[in-house]
Recover the amino acids of this structure.
């Protein structure tokens, strides 16, 4: 089921898993992004099964270590930055949220020290 809040109206893909790696939530942009892989039908499935090697092994280690991961990709001509962040409540690991944000090819950078 899609998340029923502001995330339904933003052009970024948000996917949430529980601590066991089961996909629990996808917003509409995430469902559209992964439509060819099953879209909303992915809810309830193991996120590791959705990734080929070597991504699967890296993701499995992230679930053990609860560490964040950040990288960029290009998919269907669109560059995106991916943030995979651990969800922690009251000191207890609860899973991950993956946020996929479309970005331009040339992104300005500003040092604000």
């Amino acid at each position: 089921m899609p998340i029923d809040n502001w995330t339904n109206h933003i052009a970024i893909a948000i996917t949430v898993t529980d601590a066991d790696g089961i996909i629990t939530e996808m917003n509409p942009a995430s469902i559209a992004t992964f439509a060819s892989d099953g879209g909303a039908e992915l809810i309830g499935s193991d996120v590791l099964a959705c990734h080929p090697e070597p991504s699967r092994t890296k993701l499995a280690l992230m679930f053990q270590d609860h560490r964040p991961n950040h990288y960029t990709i290009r998919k269907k001509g669109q560059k995106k930055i991916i943030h995979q962040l651990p969800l922690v409540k009251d000191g207890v690991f609860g899973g991950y949220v993956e946020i996929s944000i479309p970005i331009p090819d040339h992104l300005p950078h500003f040092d604000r020290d």
